[in-house]
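Researcher: Good morning. I'm working through a list of sequences from a screen, and I'd like to move beyond sequence-only analysis. For each chain I'm collecting a predicted structure so we can compare shapes side by side. This is the next one on the list. No need for commentary yet; just the structure.
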Amino acid sequence: MTDFDITSTVEPWVVFTPHGSVAIQEQLALLESKGGSCYYFDSRGLLEEQGVHRSFAEALRFPGYYGRNWDALVDCLDDLCEEVTGGTGVVGVIQEADRLLELDYFPLFVSVLCQGADRANSSVDLDGFPLDRPAISEHFVFQFVDFDADKIRSLVEQPDLIVTQGEDFVTAALNPEEWH
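Model: Good morning. Structure tokens for this chain:
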């Protein structure tokens, strides 16, 4: 039993699970059956900041003017085209995420993914005005070969995120006191 639904437009935006989690596999299959898309990222391509930008830009078909920085990543995650999302939703799956835990930018990377997903999953803009598009389900899943929930939680926790932990998962979403 999970406390999250990566096929919906509700938080949490980032989920950390053991590789092969049945709950995640079922939710990914459900999203795809509804017309949504799953994109898989090899963590070896994310070991440097520019690798993160290159991998996301290529897989999610960011526009040519993508600035290849964290703010631009948030903006592009908020504005994915229907071709990428299927008009329904998208999940980015980072495989063998164990490699990323010790990177200096790992907590920032998680926060950026939460920011982009929070905006994509909203039907209003940053000023609270209705958008001219529906909210798009957007989530990110980090899969671990050696899943250590306590370690992951300790590395992800920061003031701008709300982090929760279950027996076989950790989740992250934006802290509304900091972001809304």
